[in-house]
Amino acid sequence: MQLDQPLSEKEFNELDNFLLSDRAPEDAMTMDTLHGFLTAIAIGPETIMPAEWLPKIWGQDGKDVPKFKNAKEEERIVNLIMRFMNEVLVTFEVAPKEFEPLFVEHEHEGQTLIDAEAWCWGFWEGMELRPGSWDEIWDSEVGDLMRPVYLLGADEIEEEELPLVEDPVLAHKLALELEANLPAIHKFWVPRRKAPVTTVKREEPKVGRNDDCPCGSGKKYKKCHGAADAGAE
């Protein structure tokens, strides 16, 4: 299956069941938390490689690992996670206003309300991978876009802010506000997004000055092309 294929309902349930199973670590993310986590990574200020964020799915310290039956199952689960991530990336690239966070619905006094707390907790975890790099949006004129994420996802909020998240109706409104804000948060970072840091490796071994010149002249490198290189410096 190609990595650019979105998860089918069956595959979504397969990943969901694995994350909730006894073979996943106790602190493994649920699907809604995972979706928030991947969203923060997808739209945030820096490109973060899977080798860094994948271990965090199984626990905050990144040291817990699932009890896969075999290498084939591990490959399968990682493939599902990567496709889940790519679905987020592609949606923001092609149609950011159509992005739908994976919020949980619940009944409250006869109303169907949205609970975005677990999703926002995941988003906050994604931000924590590069905490300082998010400062620019918090300090900008559009900093209020991040307020629902803070209220619903931060470990601690101000005491006077608690009623905003403890009341299910007000929390529902915050969730709707967050969904509306996500395209603008994405838009803020597009021109500012930094590529991952990569180490440039020399393709060919370095030639010593006393080695034979690789051009085949039979002369020492320092007497041949090495002399030209030195003159060019």
Question: Secondary-structure blueprint of this entry?
Answer:
Layout: H1 9-20, H2 31-43, H3 50-53, H4 71-94, E1 104-108, E2 111-115, H5 117-127, H6 135-138, H7 147-153, H8 162-166, H9 168-189, H10 225-232
Antiparallel strand pairs: 1-2
Question: Tally of extended strands?
Answer: 2
What is the distance, rounded to the nearest whole angstrom, between the alpha carbons of the first and last residues?
51 Å
What is the fold named in CATH at topology level of the largest domain?
Answer: Four Helix Bundle (Hemerythrin (Met), subunit A)
How would you classify the quaternary structure? single chain
Rounded to an integer in angstroms, the radius of gyration calculated over CA atoms is 24 Å
Poorly predicted spans: 198-204
The structure class reads: mainly alpha
Compact description:
By secondary structure, the protein is mainly alpha-helical. 47% of the residues lie in helices and 4% in strands.
What does this entry look like structurally?
This is UPF0149 family protein. The protein has 233 residues and is mostly helical. The protein has two domains: 9-190, Four Helix Bundle (Hemerythrin (Met), subunit A) (Up-down Bundle); 198-226, no CATH class. It contains ten helices and two strands; from the N terminus they run H-H-H-H-E-E-H-H-H-H-H-H. Strands 1-2 form a two-stranded antiparallel sheet. Helix 2 packs across helix 4 (71-94), helix 5 packs across helix 7 and helix 7 crosses helix 9. The radius of gyration is 24 Å and the shape is globular. The N and C termini lie far apart (51 Å).
